Structure formats: structure tokens, C-alpha cells
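Minutes, project huddle
Topic: does the predicted pose make sense with beta-D-fucopyranose bound?
PN asked that the exact inputs be recorded in the minutes so nobody has to dig through chat later. Recorded below.
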Amino acid sequence: MNRRELLRSLGLSAGALALVPNDVLAQLVKTQAMQKSAFGKDFLWGVATAAYQIEGAHNIDGKGPNIWDKFSHTKGKIKHAQTGDVSCDFYHSYAADLDILKSLNMDVFRFSTSWSRILPEGTGQVNQKGIDFYHRVIDKCLENGIQPWPTLYHWDLPQALQDKGGWMNRDVINWFTEYSNLLTKTYGDKVKNWMVLNEPMAFSGLGYLLGYHAPGIRGIKHFAAAAHHTAMCQAEGGRIIRSNVKDANIGTTFSCSYIMPWKSEDRDHIAVKRWDAFINRFYIEPALGMGYPLADLPFLKKIEKFIQPGDMEKLKFDFDFIGVQNYTREVAKYMWYIPFMKGLEVPPKKRGVTEVTEMNWEVYPEGIYEIIKQFAAYKGVKKIIVTENGCAFPDFVMNDSVHDTNRVNFYQRYLEQVLRAKNDGVNLGGYFSWTLLDNFEWSEGYTPRFGLVHVDFETQKRTIKDSGLWFREFLK
Ligand code: FCB
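Predicted holo structure (C-alpha cells), as shared on screen:
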């Protein structure tokens, strides 16, 4: 693409273009030149969502309460005391929202099923209205030519099960088995692509170690129990899908961030190694038959107490694909006095980094390239799909438009790095943006807006942002 073509595609005048610095211009030329076809014709494009974050309808049609219902109604847990009670009301607006998705030329709708909408008590009595809702969502996807990609668990454990200890109770393996069997037998005829868990480290770490997310529990012992049972369910879920769904394509997803040393001193590498083992390696390695990376996380030896004979074998599952979910990079600094991790991640501000999102996450596109390469280097990883990537920025609606230039820029630069990994030979099968609609961002409430589509939470009005329009054009 030359200057004139660029000018035309950006709608800039020659005068305005002359003001753009050369390095920025070079970047623009590169990203404008990026074509969908460069990713290959089988590459899948989609959006990712999660039940509790979008559905609302928290207590109707027989849905039981889950840990996020309880947590968000507990004083002091969520910014501005917001809850997911209504959120984007996807429960009622799913058809129109899936029409918007279709209009963006996407192939895939990644969503999760709410366990307590289907089994209000977590086990036992099935709620037919919940089952019917996901039939409607799946059918609407199929009618629109969109592939439905459900995730069995995206953080919303039925409260009835949390009351019995939740993920800390080994019985969760039986509860999860019952739930997964029900789902895959119910929808397996029309749904072939499944994911077991969404970001196990995020929900076990934030929910059972730090208490920042539901159910708000703290402590290494609690975490160790929850973590082992989670890893057991990760593999068990894979086996259940395999046995119930003919020709299934099975994956699970991981939160991951490339970790770099604060200064390249040997000491910082100690911190890098620990954080990497904890954040990136902890759940994938047991699935690959490598066990937990305890050599690099000595303090987690506590987990051994929860491992029963035969478990190490059961932790393995041969996933068809691995979902990589990346937003930023981390920079780790050695600090001898920090218990367990021997160091901390240095926040962007302290590093003098100013390009951050509303979540205060550094914009660092090369990080997605590095982490994809890191995961692809595992022998047992057959295929990678970027199952989440995106950014929150403050957005404003003006004349029915949202000019989220910073988000367009973010996607273009991250996609370039995804393409770079693909061109290096990584078997990359797709890219799903987080997310379709602005929604309830867990403990942060509604302030961070991640959507390609703006939601006015007072009126439920949807406005496709420029980033959504960019995808529509790009995927045309
Ligand atoms: C991921 C979660 C997702 C969303 C994004 C911003 O860690 O999987 O639900 O909150 O972060």
C-alpha cells in the first residue's frame, strides 16, 4: 500500500497525513496492508463472552443463585456496588445481539453456560427453561451461520455447591461430571466445538487465594485444594466431551502473559521463573502429563496433600486445541522479602509505561507473539486458538457513533503479532476478540468497557463502535 492508497483508506487529507510522524506512518501502512487472507481461509474469527457477564436475568425462569450473584451482592466487593443482575440482558436480547455479531462478519460465538441456570442446586433437579435458553442461543447461531463454541465453566459456580466447599471439596469432580454430561448429551448433536474451563488460574487464584473474586476466599491451603480439583475437572471435562460428542473439537483456555525481567540481572530471573510457573505453566503442564511445576514453586508443595493415588494419570488429557488468552505482558522484579514468589510484578506506572488500558494493563503487542510461541513450544500442544484478546478504554457515544481509535489500533497491532506467530509456523486456528458487548467486568463492575459494541446500561441501546466496524470491513 502506498501513501495515496493509505490516504484514501484512512479518509485523511494530504495535509493531515503530512503531520503524521514517519514511524507512526510506517506502522499505519503495515497494519492497513494486513489482509484477512494472510491468516488463511480456515482461520476462524469470533468473539468471546461469558454467561454471568452478559446474561442478566439472574433470578428468573428457575435459575439458582451462583457465587457471583452472592459476591456481587456483598457489600464492598464490587466497584460502585454494581452487580450482574441485569447487565446487557443478553438473556432477552440474544437474538438481536447475534444478528449484530453476524453483521460483523464473524464465524464464531464463544459463550459459556450458566451452571445454576441449568442445575439450580448444582446437581439433581434440571431446569428445563435453562436448557431451552441455550437451545435458542445455539439455534440462533446456526441460523445465522455462526458456529456456537460453548465453554462449560466461566467462573459462576452454583452457590449451593460453594456452600459445600465449592472447588475446595473433592466432590466437585462428581458435580462437574454430572453437569458436563448433561450439557454434552443435551447439545452434542448440534455443537461440535467445546471448551472445558475458562482461565483456571484466574478463578482459582483470584477466588480462592487472593479473595478478590468470588467466592472471596483467601489462603494457600484453600488455593491448593481448589487448584488440584480444578485441574482434575479440566481433564475429566475433556474426557466427558470426547465420550458424548461425536467428532468433537475439544479445548480448554488459559490466562497467560509473557513475563520479562525488570532488569536483566540474574536475580530478576528468579522472580520471572516463579511467576511464569505460577501464571502460565501451572494448569497446562499437568494436562500435558508433565505434572505441576512444583520445582519452580516450592511453596505449592501443599498441593501434594490433595493428590490421591491415580490422580497424576487422570490429570492428563489430549486436547485438540489450547485456548490462549492474553491481554498484556508482565515484568517481574526480584525481592527477597516477598514470601513465596520472591518478587513482584512491577506495575506499568512504576516502569514509566504510559500506554495502558482502562484496566491499567500495558499495551504490549509483542507479548502475544511471545506467549503464543511459548505455548506452541510444548510438545503436546497440537493447535492454538487465541480465545480472548481485547482492551478496555473509556468510550463515548456521539451522534450514534463511538470513535474508539485506540481500540482499533490495539486490535491491529495485536493481530499483526498473531500473524507473525502464524507465519513462524505455529498452528494457529483462530482469533476471538474479547468481547462483543460492554458488560459486567467482575470486581471492576461496568466501568471498563471491552465491547466492539457499546451498551447503554440505562436503555440497553447498542451502538457498534468503530472497532466493530473495523472488524466488519476487515472480515468482509
Ligand atoms: C479475562 C476473562 C474474561 C474478561 C477478560 C477481560 O481474564 O476471562 O471474563 O473478564 O479477562
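Observations noted during the meeting:
- The longest strand covers residues 147-153.
- The chain has a mean pLDDT of 95.
No decisions taken; revisit at the next huddle.
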